[in-house]
Amino acid sequence: MSTATFTRERSGWALPRFMTAEHPFPWLAPITVMLLVFGIYPLAYSVWLSFHKRNVVSRQLDFAGFHQWARAFSDTRMWDALETTLIYTFIALAVQLALGILIALLLDTDRKGYGILRALMTLPLVVPPAVTGMMFLLMQDGSFGVLSFYLYALNLISPAQPILTQPVTALLAILLADIWQWTPFMVLIILAGLRALPKEPFEAAAIDGASGIQTFLRLTLPMLRKVIAVAVLIRGVDLFRIYDYVYIISAGGPGTATETLSFYAGRIYFTGDFPYAATLSLIVLVVLIGVSNLFVRLFKVRF
Amino acid sequence: MSFRDHDKKTFVADTCNDFTARRITKRDFMRKMALAGIGFSAFGSAMLGGGRPNRGMLGFGVEEARAQDTDMLKWLADVGKPYAGTKIRYTSEATPPTIVANQLVAGEFTKATGIEVEVEIVPLEQVLAKATQDVQGQLGTYDVYYLDQSWMATFAQDVIDPREYYDQNKALAMPNFDWDDFSKPLVDGIAMYNGKQCGIPFDIPIFILMYRKDLFDKHNIALPTDLDAYLKAVQALTEAEKGNGIFGTACQAKSGHYSLECDWTFALWGHGGSIFNKDKKFVGNDERGIAGLKFYQELVKNSPPSATTWTWDGQGQALTQGQAAMAITWGEDFPGFDANDSKVKGLFEALPAPKEVPGRRATADCGFNEIPAVGHQGGSTISLSQYSKNKEAAWLFMQWVCSKDVMARVSTLGGGASPMRNSSFTDPRVKAKAVVGPGTTRHFEAIKYTIDNQMGSEPDMPIWADLSNNDIPVELGKLLTGQDYGGDAKACLDAIAHIVDGKVKDAGL
Does the CB of B484 have a partner CB in chain A at under 8 Å? Predict the structure, then answer.
């Protein structure tokens, strides 16, 4: 006998069926409302904006059809920003994943003291990204930054061409901050995956005389495949939306060499051209949805 | 030590004792501590959002913060009664007038009137975005706006003419407000748009020449009288001092930042060019414009290599750290050079910028009310929102914050922030600061001359915020960092002309 039926029998009155515990509506209602207010409405408003044009004189938003979309696709700066974003995402993801696996393997032990090391790994994650950006900006400053100082001393870069004045080094400078802050995230997810692996296959491999590399390539990596896929998906989405480090460290410069798509959208937003900024943001969203879906299908990720 | 001196120096300790002994209320404790710590707080506020240069803001005593105009406070208490309990909101960049006002408002204005003022300090681009959203929806979220001079055309229809409002609301008109005391070039250059006054001048960072006298004396270099001589002096100083880590100048040439646009307009106007002609066409790419940009490219070459990553903050820091011998830039940097932690304390002198070559283009030959002159101004107004639901209370706040007494204190407490009122230049409190030291006002003579004689103003047009914060500095950044145009100033300016003319046409201007 269900609780609802029991309540009805004892009290003699009943709630409508859709309001009872056996029905999901009451439990889904709050989150549905939140989703509508904070998710669907802003998205719908952005889509609506992207089909309008702001008249700077009258202040009115006039319907403009696909004007903003056509403008975006013919905007070389948008394509450059998209390219920069993809390069940034790819490099950061590759480095963070490689370092994440390596460090996770090193930390996957029950020896004394490693617990503290694992805890220390989380420290960069609690620093606000804006603070991390400022930290690296100061370290990379061409005149008094400690990182610049050592790079000059090692003759790796010239004082006449400080880190943030050159397109390649400026992008690397932003990547460095991102890698420092987010590699521990990869480490933690992969470490959790490693800890959950069954011991038997590894014991069998050891008895069969498999080498460490063989064990890693034939057992560890395939068994971690889905954990890695989830980590890559989460970080990939985050990286593609990169804004804060760019804003603080390079502001898109030198020139537009480090201008990412989100940063470009933000810059347009702050000039008051809300429809075009909304269109650029939607492009970020469309690319993310497309790539994420492809990735989920390809790696058969199940949540 | 006199009793009075002792009293001042033990102010903080005594206040704490009074509070712990319950002799004063928590509110009074906070107010007194705010007064005592006003300099420190102001420093913190100045850090918010990378405001415009005001490195001289280093702290000051309780005596300097005290209001002198008690009659004004009595008047405010009388007329403000009906509005007690009202809360007004004001959004602004972290500039000296706002920071000082923020520190003084609770203890003076709110105490007298009962009107609460919420000051929201954010970076300049966010001030623009917030104000734009507010006027777009006519929301009245903010009662008072801080408006940069380059936005005046954009917001002219959304603000109330303060002169008209003053004349129409006699009961709320502050006695002795003295409108004529405001510097006329500032009112014309910052606040006026198509015959309407859009606000009260509130802040005036302006370009002057600041130079290291010791280095000029050491190398026997004559002070430049025009921009050609200025460039030669910059090159000579780089040549002579580069080995010591000192460059001839320092630029604020960060790609895509408004600071780069400001530097460029100074170079353009200084070479007799202008952004627009009277037919509203971009002419920054004419012969004078190209000469101006080539001149600026030379300045960047004679700056520390990081100059292309600096806004006004980096530039001011470089000058304060002794990395550059001189610059034509924001006069507000000057007090920072005399600060105690400066490496060049007492070494810098200030003069009006050298005159333009080959001469100034007439204002009548320019479009959108552009005023081409070498002293680029980056002023702003405080403006009353058309959509405010608390206009009367907001108007009282505006009059208080722009009163003679408060504005003079903005210059002293704000660490040598440039005055908007003529009376501030002659105020004894301001003149007493005209010595080497933190918050100096010894550069005010150069500031006053520049305001009165060679102040340059950007065009008044609704899309100027977009052009000056995005398109123009982005393309200039590509040129200066070698990302595009192969160092060809004309190619860069032609590209800017194409973008600007396209947007002007698109906007139907």
Answer: yes
The rounded distance, in Å, linking the Cα atoms of B161 and B183 is 17
**∠ CA A241-A246-A250, rounded to 5°:** 160
Q: Find the CB nearest A272 among B128, B318, B323.
A: B128
Residues of A in contact with B465 (CB under 8 A): 271-272
A162 touches chain B (CB under 8 A): yes
- Sequence-ordered list of residues with C-beta below 8 angstroms from that of B21, at least 6 positions apart, any chain: none
Q: Where are the domains of chain B?
A: 37-205+380-431, 207-376+449-506
Taking the C-alpha atoms of residue A259 and residue A87, their distance in angstroms, rounded to an integer, is 11
CB–CB of B306 and A164 under 8 A? Answer: yes
Q: Return the structure tokens found at B360.
A: 């100034």
Q: Where in chain A is the domain with CATH 1.10.3720.10?
A: 75-299
Residue type at B443 in one-letter notation: H
A168: chain B residues, CB-CB within 8 Å = none
Residue with tokens 């007064």: B35
CB-based contact B64:B38 (threshold 8 Å)? no
Name the residue facing B463 among A56, A251, A256 (closest C-beta).
A56
pLDDT along chain B (509 residues), means of 10: 40 53 57 47 36 46 69 94 95 88 91 94 85 88 92 91 95 94 92 92 94 97 95 97 95 93 97 96 97 98 94 92 96 92 95 90 93 93 96 96 92 84 92 90 94 93 89 95 94 97 92
Tell me which CATH homologous superfamily contains domain B207-376+449-506. Answer: Periplasmic binding protein-like II (3.40.190.10)
Do the Cβ atoms of B302 and B249 come closer than 8 Å?
A: yes
Is B463 touching A (CB cutoff 8 A)? yes
The answer, yes or no, to whether the previous bond of A254 is cis (omega within 30 of 0) is yes
Of all residues in chain B, the one with the smallest CA distance to A160 is: B305
**For the complex shown, is ipTM > 0.90?**
no
List the single best residue of A56, A131, A276 to mutate versus B (max B Cβ within 10 A).
Answer: A56
Residue A56, chain B, CB below 8 Å: the answer is yes
**Homologous superfamily of domain range B37-205+380-431:** Periplasmic binding protein-like II (3.40.190.10)
Task: Please check whether the two domains, B37-205+380-431 and B207-376+449-506, share a CATH topology.
Answer: yes
Whether the CB of A266 is below 8 Å from some CB of chain B: the reply is no
* pTM for this predicted structure: 0.82
- The helix or strand, by DSSP H or E, that contains position B144, with its residue range, turns out to be strand B144-148
Q: Output the CATH code of domain A75-299.
A: 1.10.3720.10
CA distance A185 to chain B (A): 29
Percent of residues in chain B assigned helix, strand, coil, to nearest 5:
55, 15, 35
